[in-house]
Automatic annotation (TrEMBL):
The protein, known as: DAO-domain-containing protein
A GO CC annotation given for this chain: cytoplasm
SUPFAM superfamilies to which the protein is assigned, alphabetical: FAD/NAD(P)-binding domain
Residue intervals of the FAD dependent oxidoreductase domain: 66-464
InterPro entries: FAD-dep_OxRdtase, FAD/NAD-bd_sf
Taxonomic classification: Eukaryota, Fungi, Dikarya, Basidiomycota, Agaricomycotina
Pfam families documented for this protein: DAO (PF01266)
Top-level lineage group: Eukaryota
Transmembrane segments: none
Length: 503
């Protein structure tokens, strides 16, 4: 096990991080809009890799839609995909349906286009905490939701022969364990999840000696299911699939307007539509708004600012060249230090040593980079520890002197208990009459740096609710998918939070 002196990052700080949400009253400013000059992310460059980057940014802006989706990350495009399936299937009284996606910057240039590329369904970690908050049965749903999302995503990729296009690698995932405290917690989560009925037979524990022998690192690990991919390329393909389905449904349409930030949402003057979305290019009227804005959600929904809402949080990544071949690193993805660091080698067909995408380092700052919306800069302290991290964990496999080939930041949306907000927009601070003031607005956001295995399912749930309500149903007679924890639902959350405080 490790002592602090051996690794460049602070260890056992998860609890300290969480306390910021409970104790730090200063975290309360609404998010800004996304900045216009973000750092260069590996996944978005060269621009030719992002064919939809500027889609719909010139010419006429759509004036009217049934549904407007704000945000073109994996949430927004997954929602478009689920709507496309409903439209093509003619379900829910949806035809014809006009959907418009509005994106502040280039296509998919938020967290999804700047992340670590891991698609890892959680195995059992944090089960103890979740059980305390929601009870065993509901806690298990969180894991079921992630398994559902990842299964669907990989099936879409395989069914459409997209593995190579999106660089899908299904190599499993190692959770490296640095300290005795972490190991005790991980074993306790494992036993508790198993006792609650989770099928964990696939989990493989590796001892320190096995890890030294196999991977040249002295930290024990648990190996779970996991994949890595090129997130923006997957989202691009998902958009194309959605577009194709819309084209088959007569009268329906899907339009994307990038570089079109929504600056405010007003009641519409047009009697046929509820809402009017204001942008520098003009306004768009619609009945339904889906906020797929993740870390930026509180810009348009200021009541979400603060520790009970969604805190924009800056994450940082480097792309660094290994000093050894991919065979001696494995094709798996990895995380360590309670998930604060995460990395994987990019697939390579040549004899060249692989580029490793490594994220983390924000725990070096006292405020953990919470409340930051500026991804035009990198944090110098985080840069320093990221450069030192892999050489310390895998002695001899990375050269400390090698500068990263790229480095960038992105904005995540953190919530106190790591759960996203899914469902109709409900102002938790308002009185009963205020709660109707967002009628027709929905949200799926706040994945706390772990969105790749959750956004697809959350978008599926919110779209199902939207279509149900468009068809005359209510949230009371909507059937919740059996993998969706009730706690994720916006209208259930307030009561659940009160329960958690007493836990
Ligand atoms: C550095 C980093 C590393 C990460 N690593 C991983 C990982 O390896 N695995 C994992 O599972 N998760 C990871 N995450 C988290 C994951 O990327 C997110 O949870 C996920 O991408 C969220 O998707 P989204 O579509 O909800 O948000 P985003 O991708 O952020 O999309 C939101 C979009 O909304 C747009 N927008 C915001 N406000 C407005 C507005 N007013 N008008 C118009 N458009 C607006 C933004 O420009 C943005 O494109 C990481 C995140 C970061 C930043």
């Amino acid at each position: 096990m490790s002592s602090q002196a051996e690794l460049p990052v602070p260890l056992n700080v998860y609890e300290k991080h969480w306390r910021l949400f409970v104790d730090d009253a200063s975290i309360k400013e609404p998010a800004t809009l996304p900045v216009q000059n973000p750092t260069r992310s590996f996944w978005l460059h060269p621009t030719s890799e992002n064919p939809l980057a500027k889609e719909g940014s010139q010419g006429a802006l759509s004036k009217d839609a049934d549904i407007c989706i704000i945000g073109s990350g994996i949430t927004g495009i997954s929602a478009a995909y689920h709507l496309a399936k409903a439209v093509a299937g003619g379900s829910g009284g949806t035809n014809p349906l006009k959907v418009v996606i509005l994106e502040a910057r280039d296509f998919c240039s938020g967290a999804t286009g700047r992340n670590g590329g891991h698609l890892t369904p959680a195995g059992f970690l944090d089960f103890g905490m979740r059980k305390k908050v929601m009870g065993s049965k509901e806690a298990l749903k969180q894991y079921a939701l992630e398994a559902h999302s990842v299964r669907e995503i990989t099936e879409i990729i395989k069914a459409n022969d997209l593995e190579e296009k999106v660089d899908l690698v299904s190599g499993g995932h190692f959770d490296l364990i640095f300290t005795e405290d972490e190991l005790t917690e991980a074993k306790s989560d494992f036993e508790a999840a198993k006792a609650a009925g989770a099928d964990l037979d696939y989990v493989r524990w590796f001892s320190r000696d096995e890890m030294i022998e196999t991977f040249g690192t002295k930290y024990p690990a648990a190996k779970i299911h996991g994949h890595n991919l090129w997130p923006m390329k997957y989202v691009t393909q998902l958009y194309y699939l959605a577009q194709k389905s819309f084209e088959t449904a007569h009268g329906s349409s899907l339009r994307l307007h990038t570089n079109t930030p929504v600056t405010s949402i007003k009641s519409s003057d047009d009697k046929k539509r509820r809402w009017s979305l204001q942008t520098p290019r003009g306004s768009v009227s619609c009945n339904i708004v889906l906020h797929a804005t993740n870390g930026y959600a509180s810009h348009l929904l200021p009541f979400l600012a603060g520790p009970n809402g969604i805190i924009p949080t800056r994450g940082q990544i480097i792309a660094t060249r290994a000093a050894v071949s991919v065979d001696s690193l494995s094709r798996a993805s990895w995380s360590g230090n309670e998930g604060f660091e995460y990395w994987f080698p990019r697939p390579t067909t040549s004899s060249e040593n692989p580029l490793v995408i490594l994220g983390g380092g924000r725990e070096i700052e006292k405020d953990f980079e919470l409340n930051e919306t500026d991804d035009s800069i990198v944090n110098k302290q985080a840069s320093k520890v990221l450069r030192a991290f892999l050489p310390a964990v895998f002695p001899g496999k990375f050269d400390k002197k090698d500068a990263p080939e790229m480095e960038w930041t992105g904005i995540m949306g953190f919530t106190k208990l790591t759960d996203p907000f899914v469902g109709p927009v409900v102002d938790l601070n308002s009185n009963a009459s205020g709660k109707t003031s967002y009628l027709g607005q929905y949200i799926s956001a706040g994945y706390t740096g772990h969105g790749m295995p959750r956004t697809y399912a959350c978008a599926e749930a919110v779209v199902s609710l939207i279509l149900h309500e468009m068809g005359g149903g209510t949230r009371d007679d909507w059937v919740r998918p059996d993998w969706l924890p009730a706690r994720y639902l916006t209208w259930v959350r307030e009561a659940a939070d009160k329960g958690a405080q007493g836990a």
